[in-house]
Amino acid sequence: MPAITPDEVRHVARLARLELSEEEVARFTRQLGEILQAARRLQELDTEGVDPTFYPLPLRNVFRPDEVRPSLPRERVLQNAPEVEADMFRVPRIIEEA
Amino acid sequence: MTGAVAMTEEEALLFGSIEELSERLWRGEISARELAEAHLRQIERIDGEIHAYLTVVAERALTQADAADRWIARRRQEQGGPVDVRRLDPSERLVGIPWACKDVLCTEGVRTTCGSRMLESFVPPYSATVVTRLDEAGAVMLGKVNMDEFAMGSSNENSAFGPTRNPWDLDRVPGGSSGGSAAAVAAGEAVFSLGSDTGGSVRLPASYCGVVGLKPTYGAVSRYGLVAFASSLDQVGPIARRVRDCAIVFEAVAGPDPMDSTSAPGPVPAVLPTLEHGAGGVRLGLAPEYFGEGLSAPVREAVMGAVARLEREGATTVEVRMPHLEYALPVYYIISPSEASSNLARYDGVRYGLRRPGDDVVAMFSRTRRDGFGDEVKRRIMLGTYALSTGYYEAFYLKAQKVRTLIRRDFEQAFERADVLVTPVSPSVPFRLGERVDDPLQMYLTDIYTLSVNLAGLPAVSVPCGFSPEGLPIGVQIIGPAFAEARVLQVARAVEAAVADQVADRRPAVAVR
């Protein structure tokens, strides 16, 4: 059984919001298959009762005082935006008209 | 390749240590402006061949240099004469020292591309904490240096703006992803640089370019303003030509930061007081898993040669085992792409970066990401999205995080018997451009000895220990327990001193001709 099929690659690309060419689908199917095949080796190991390490530091919640502080001015936040209108980020229509 | 050469005054400016240059600055023998201009000339002269820099900020650098000159003049006036450099406040050691910044760190008002088309014209509205700390220390930033796109790669060939070349052999890669950072320092285009290290991205290029690179303990250096790749692995680290310079820069940038909740609390770890303590009595851990099949003969000989010299200095060796090391590669290539696929979701063409039009937002996102990301970044986003998706999360992502615990325990057990581990940095010397681009798995093997350090969050340094017969640099990796930066740098300094007859004063021909 192949590690990953072209249809799965297309599905994952949709999840990742990544438009792929058919050439890329073919190539990624092969390359991701090889990498995932190598990753299957992890199944050899017994990890029963082993806690996962999500972070290397034993830090727990880090809090700061909940107080209003200055942040970046609006024009600086918008300075890199591809499209701005009325001091806001402009995007294609998301909500349908009623 | 060139052996030791008599230094011209220009070369003394370009290849001096931080303390040598600092001493001349504070004595008034040279000005920060002269020092910055010498580096800008060197960049002008040779960077066409090396391509370390993506952006040179000459005007900003000269403004910072003039401010450094005023700083020194003011202090001399306060003292009524020259300032004794040995009594210099540690916070003033970097005044007027030129450096290069990996283009993964945000610099207010200076374009920050991350080596990607996605951020080709991105100008950050704020600076990374490490950049601010160097600004406040009076250092002079010369520009932003090249890297693999979003720090994903081992050769610098994944930069959207063309690869950096290895100053020791222009047909070979400088290593990645901080290839520009290492090449610039090796070629006298900066006194030091900052890189970032997620799986070896500071240590590998340091080894390939014959310079020193430190990957600090996870949390020792703030990540605020570092463009995120894999947030549980990323660390910022210094690259320099000498261990002592690396230690000075580490002290300047390390320490807790309220803007990064994953930065470790507690004072800045002092590394300079013990730096010259040598290798006497140090227990060097050697794990056979680092010296097995796949390690090339010249690298093995150089690393074992360094170990033998440390033994003559009074170090002892002890065999330790790393039974789970062989799983580091698959663990890393599940965890890092998973975190990356999440971190890189922000590049959607809305708030900053590239935008490609589309009829609806999903089309806009998908086309923006199609055109903004290069091949390797797409591959890792795909891999991570797959590993995190329904049905695969437990088999891949959770399993990898559990095996990560086993790797961490291997290190903990090794450090019960050894003070540091001594390993190769990479299985081979720098390879030729193009040699591994079509084979991702082969490319990933380049980092096989460095990845596990990030998984465990440990400090490690790559320090030059010799040259291959064809004149290519070879580094040795010193790994220590968490927050033992002082210890790994002390041993690295001992290596540097022990191999000085073979390594010191060799410079790439392109940099000195």
- What is the straight-line distance between the termini of chain B? 11 Å
- Tell me the major beta sheet of chain A: 2 strands, antiparallel
Mean pLDDT of chain B: 95
Rg of chain B:
22 Å
The largest interface is: A-B, 49 and 71 residues
How much beta of chain A, percentage-wise? under 5%
Write the H/E string of chain B, N to C. HHHEHEHEHEHEEHEHEHHHHEHHEEHHH
Distance between the termini of chain A: 48 Å
Q: By helix and strand content of chain A, what is the structural category?
A: mainly alpha
Percent in helix of chain B: 40-55%
Describe the structure.
The complex is a heterodimer of chains A (98) and B (513). With 98 residues, chain A is mainly alpha-helical. In chain A, 34% of the residues lie in helices and 4% in strands. Chain A has helices spanning 6-15, 22-39, 74-78; strands at residues 84-85, 88-89. In chain A, strand 1 (84-85) and strand 2 (88-89) form a beta hairpin. In chain A, helix 1 packs across helix 2 (22-39). The N and C termini of chain A lie far apart (48 Å). In chain B, strands 1-3-2-4-6-5-10-11-9-7-8 form an 11-stranded mixed β-sheet, with helices on both faces. The longest helix of chain B has 25 residues, at 393-417. Chain B has 513 residues and is of the alpha/beta class. The chains are: A mainly alpha (98), B alpha/beta (513). Chains A and B meet through helix 1 and helix 2 of A and helix 10, helix 11, helix 12, helix 13 and helix 14 of B. Chain A: It comes from Geochorda subterranea. Chain A: This is Aspartyl/glutamyl-tRNA(Asn/Gln) amidotransferase subunit C. Chain A: Keywords: ATP-binding, Ligase, Nucleotide-binding, Protein biosynthesis. Chain A: InterPro entries: Asp/Glu-ADT_sf_sub_c, GatC.
